[in-house]
Specification:
The complex is a heterodimer. By secondary structure, chain A is mainly β. Helices cover 0% and strands 44% of the residues of chain A. In chain A, strands 1, 3, 4, 7, 8 and 9 form a six-stranded mixed beta sheet that branches. Chain A has a three-stranded antiparallel beta sheet with strand order 2-6-5, with no helix packed on it. In chain A, strand 7 (86-94) and strand 8 (99-102) form a beta hairpin. The chains are: A mainly beta, B mainly beta. The interface between A and B is medium-sized, with 30 and 27 residues.
């Protein structure tokens, strides 16, 4: 069972804004540890979306944004598009486990 | 271009061993820490192990500690995962990934990832 909790699903119509939460604790997100977000389409290689809480790698559209506050983080997708349908995972290092942890994952559906 | 290609997956009986490989190309492999991550059927992503750029430091998920060993051969640009005492719950697609952060865990993020190799543990 993951120490980072996400809602199992989120949805929106094209053009809408969708936000995904990631709830952690004092040993992971609550530290200065980097929170990262990955997009995963089943059967393909996961893709880095956000790193170091709110940084976008080159090539990732600015529709994707990340934030962190206390022991929680969130990913926002604005101007939702059909190609955004995928699974999304938050992740961070956990100092108590001395290991990297992924969130439970959120499936985004474009209605 | 930067590329990671996993190999070595297959069907193996419980209690047996298997070694996965991850061939890296398009970047200076010896400069980066590397990770293994897995995804069991119908489940989410699970981090498995991290090895530092020089291979001197290793970290493992509790679920594989004492059974799996991560290693690397920088002369061959290849990452390995030796899996012993395999269990049914180790059945998963195994991905290798480059650590594009500081390779310390605390400031680690993965990019790119390989396409994965399927390991099925079954009698």
């Amino acid at each position: 069972q993951s120490v980072l909790t996400q809602p199992p699903s989120a949805s929106g119509t094209p053009g809408q804004r969708v936000t995904i939460s990631c709830s952690g604790g004092s040993s992971n997100i609550g530290r200065s540890n980097s929170v990262n977000w990955y997009q995963h389409l089943p059967g393909t290689a996961p893709k880095l979306l956000i790193y170091s809480n709110n940084q976008r790698p080159s090539g990732v559209p600015d529709r994707f944004s990340g934030s962190k506050s206390g022991t929680s983080a969130s990913l926002a997708i604005s101007g939702l598009q059909s190609e955004d349908e995928a699974d999304y995972y938050c992740a961070a290092w956990d100092d108590s486990l001395n290991g990297y942890v992924f969130g439970t994952g959120t499936k985004v559906t474009v209605l | 271009q930067v590329q990671l290609v996993e190999s070595g997956g297959g069907v193996v009986q419980p209690g047996r061993s298997l070694r996965l490989s991850c061939a890296a190309s398009g970047f200076m492999f010896s400069n980066y820490a590397m990770h293994w991550v897995r995804q069991a059927p119908g489940k989410g992503l699970e981090w498995v192990a991290l090895v530092s750029y020089a291979g001197t430091n290793e970290y493992y998920a509790d679920s594989v500690k004492g059974r799996f060993t991560i290693s690397r051969d920088n002369s061959k640009n290849t990452l390995y995962l030796q899996m012993n005492s395999l269990r049914a719950e180790d059945t998963a697609v195994y991905f290798c990934a480059r650590d594009l952060g500081y390779g310390s865990g605390t400031y680690s993020w993965f990019d790119p990832w390989g396409q994965g190799t399927l390991v099925t543990v079954s009698s």
